[in-house]
Amino acid sequence: MSASRTHRWKAVALATAAVLAGLTTPALTATPAAATTTSYDSTYYKNAVGKSGTALKSSLHTIISNQTKLSYSALWNALKNTDQDPDNSNNVILLYSGVSRSKSLSGGSVGDWNREHVWAKSHGDFGTSTGPGTDLHHIRPADVQVNSIRGNKDFDNGGSSFTNSGGSLTDSDSFEPRDEVKGDVARMILYMAVRYEGGDGWPDLEPNDWVSNGSDPYMGRLSVLKQWNDEDPPDAFEEHRNQVVYDSYQHNRNPFIDHPEWVDAIW
């Protein structure tokens, strides 16, 4: 059972017990992410540690903007490394479905995997030119059909299952990823909001608490993303991926994987 599922099971159990006892059912809220320390705090993050709010966001923006930028075509080979199945080096793990699929099946046909922009590129209309459109921290392998079903929808709870969903859900205006990657999605979206602030020729990307943001440079729903960050903390796969992007490709980090508590410190 995943950490998020365990959390939900415990929360439901507590609520049920309260009802049986004749008490008011408590509101179900996630426990805020615990403070962490990393080996990068005295070096990479030294100008951010101890700050909060806009000061923390500004410091992190300066830190993570110093990156090596990839071309869109270079993402194919990069993803075969960053998202490699730890149990089968010939495969990659697909983000929304959780399927392990051959690295050779990259493309645009049914049964292939392609390059999914977790921050939908139409939200800000930044396309696939070098910049946010090629930032490896939010681009992941996804099943072609599942990627099409997600489209450019904002993230929120609710919806129905679909073919090869792997536990992900969707409705007319939002998409809910499977439990095991809800926190991953939240941290990718919030990384983008810190990295792209509108000062380097790209849109100022920001989270908000809406869905159906269209072509505006916003992604929602912030309150749900914060909950997902708390419920689904970084796991070994996500942490390893962050390290590979840092060591081998962009040489910048997603700070919310290293310090998930910084999400609540900023928003």
UniProtKB/TrEMBL annotation:
Transmembrane segments: none
UniProt xrefs under InterPro entries: Endonuclease-I, His-Me_finger_sf
Signal peptide: 1-29
GO molecular function (one): endonuclease activity
Region (Disordered): 151-178
Keywords noted in UniProt: Endonuclease, Hydrolase, Nuclease, Signal
Biased composition (Low complexity): 157-168
Transferase listed as a keyword: no
Pfam families in alphabetical order: Endonuclease_1
PANTHER family, alphabetized: ENDONUCLEASE-1
Protein name (Swiss-Prot/TrEMBL): Endonuclease
Taxonomic lineage from the root: Bacteria, Bacillati, Actinomycetota, Actinomycetes, Kitasatosporales
